[in-house]
Amino acid sequence: MTQVRKFWPLLTGLHSYEKAVSIRNRGHGEMIEAPILAYLIETANGRILYDVGCDYRKLEDPALRQRFYEGFELAPPIMREEDRLPSRLERLGLTPKDVDVVFLGHLHFDHAGGLHEFCHAELHVHEKELQAAREPADSAYFADDLAPVKSWRCTCCEYDLTPGVRAIETPGHTAGHMSMLIELPKGAPILLCGDAADLTENLEDEIAPGLCYRDDEADALASIRRLKQLAKETGAELWPNHDLSFFRAWDSFPLWRE
């Protein structure tokens, strides 16, 4: 029986970029607005946070902003003060210390930048992802984001974090990308795609993300098909990770799903 009690999608910022970043070889010259999301899962055994968004300090401080974003291929994201995870948690009567487990779908800057707020928590990441970030395998890994972390719980396979919350291997966008299947106490399960599928279009048309590990789309396409098959088997709703229209349809913060 699932131990999940409540589920919140959390908007942590907005990014504007060319659609080809999300859809491989499609959408050049077309700008889209994409949400930067984290997801909070409250269970009978504690609170789990999937992803932690950007580091707001690198956006707010002029020197840091210049250091990390000047010359970077993407414009800096927009993060309002209310979008910072401590602010989102405060609206729920919580602080970062109330998060027990942080699960990183992958370690790009818009997913792992907020780690400095959560170093007290048990931090989960695929071992191949941590290795890729340390290389770094591409420019979207910011070594500074990982520097505060003293200890990781590294995994190499699929597993249950707690009954009703399962880590799903979906490599391709990055070396050790992980998605998450969440069984709610009521209604259909939710299958968080992470960046295995930025947009609904990735899923419907089976198109890889624009950025693939070592520029090889084979694993990314296999992961999209795996997600679709798993959704069919479990009755889960597929949640693309950077689809603003999809997010707005479900955004009812601070209310939750159960």
Automatic annotation (TrEMBL):
<feature type="domain" description="Metallo-beta-lactamase">
    <location>
        <begin position="35"/>
        <end position="242"/>
    </location>
</feature>
<dbReference type="GO" id="GO:0102007">
    <property type="term" value="F:acyl-L-homoserine-lactone lactonohydrolase activity"/>
</dbReference>
<keyword id="KW-0862">Zinc</keyword>
<keyword id="KW-0479">Metal-binding</keyword>
<dbReference type="GO" id="GO:0046872">
    <property type="term" value="F:metal ion binding"/>
</dbReference>
<protein>
    <submittedName>
        <fullName>N-acyl homoserine lactone hydrolase</fullName>
        <ecNumber>3.1.1.81</ecNumber>
    </submittedName>
</protein>
<keyword id="KW-0378">Hydrolase</keyword>
<dbReference type="InterPro" id="IPR001279">
    <property type="entry name" value="Metallo-B-lactamas"/>
</dbReference>
<comment type="similarity">
    <text>Belongs to the metallo-beta-lactamase superfamily.</text>
</comment>
<dbReference type="Pfam" id="PF00753">
    <property type="entry name" value="Lactamase_B"/>
</dbReference>
<dbReference type="InterPro" id="IPR036866">
    <property type="entry name" value="RibonucZ/Hydroxyglut_hydro"/>
</dbReference>
<dbReference type="InterPro" id="IPR051013">
    <property type="entry name" value="MBL_superfamily_lactonases"/>
</dbReference>
